[in-house]
């Protein structure tokens, strides 16, 4: 039991092309793209730059709820929208099926439960093996006065300039005066005004599975299975995966960025740039049979001959050659020397695969 390997993956990015909360905002809220993107930037600032105590990456998913509520979003709409908008990364269903057969597999995602349930129904992945953001939007009340005020606040927020995070920023002093004012005003809107509303209960009760909660989910999984962190292969792509990456790395497990942004490349050990999940299947196959050291060695000589040397599943070898011939998708071990380059390349590839708007989100 102690040598059993475990596969844990984020969903949006490594498995699907969606950003469900962003897409919900775009579809139901006027100028929802600008609203969500600005709130997401604010989220990045508070979580990664200011590192405000008690605040975690991914809280955008609860900050956006009062606005979704004001524009008529209910559980049923969230469920139907998730089903109808689902867009998987090519190969995702095969990857989930293959890996689930060779080792215990779990989803740890910041996504709303409506979306994860839809994804599990589509792929056949067991929903009971999924950790995600639980929310019952129907339970949150909103008076007529609050509805009017939330819509006024929406107008104010979408009129604000987009926050720009300076490279290496570590405090508010590193931001422009304009952006400091935006951050201060968003603090007032969310943690003073909305928090006092009936619908503000969502900001207290909803617990997005991001940041430390993803790390906690991993600990919960390995505790139930009776294994150690070094037996975990974790795949993520964004700021919400930072603590999970750190936990897995420090425990001797394998942390993989799949089309990750700068936050993911900063923390992961291997970078995958691919428009198909078959690479994840191949790395999981080797990790399950031979462990992390062999995965690193295979990636360092990433080629058809390397797959043969490490005895990768024959069907996987055949499939990747059918898809790409000898020119495999880029897979590299992340080092201090190539981290900056990979951050730029992976972020650009991420936008190519998922679209510019979703690709630039934290």
Commentary on this structure:
This protein is an alpha/beta fold and 362 residues long. It folds into two domains: 6-17 and 87-134 and 210-359, 3-Layer(aba) Sandwich (Rossmann fold), CATH 3.40.50.1000; 20-81 and 138-205, AF1437-like domain superfamily (AF1437-like domain fold, Orthogonal Bundle), CATH 1.10.3870. It is 54% helix and 9% strand. It is built from 19 helices and seven strands. The chain has a seven-stranded mixed beta sheet, with helices on both faces. Strand 2 (105-112), helix 7 and strand 3 form a beta-alpha-beta unit. Helix 1 packs antiparallel against helix 2 (32-49) and helix 5 (75-85) crosses helix 7.
Unreliably modeled segments: none
The sequence of SSEs as H and E is EHHHHHHEHEHHHHEHEHEHHHHEHH
Mean pLDDT: 95
Our estimate of the beta-strand percent is 5-15%
Count of all domains: 2
CATH class of the largest domain: Alpha Beta
Query: Biggest sheet, open or closed, and with what strands and sense?
Result: 7 strands, mixed
Give the helix tally: 19
CATH topology of the largest domain: Rossmann fold
Give the CATH superfamily of the largest domain. HAD superfamily/HAD-like
> How do the strands line up in the largest sheet?
3-2-1-4-5-6-7
What is the alpha-carbon Rg in Å? Answer: 21 Å
Helix residue percentage: 40-55%
Categorize the overall geometry: globular
Distance between the termini: 37 Å
Oligomeric state: single chain
Number of strands: 7
CATH architecture of the largest domain: 3-Layer(aba) Sandwich
Specify the structural class.
alpha/beta
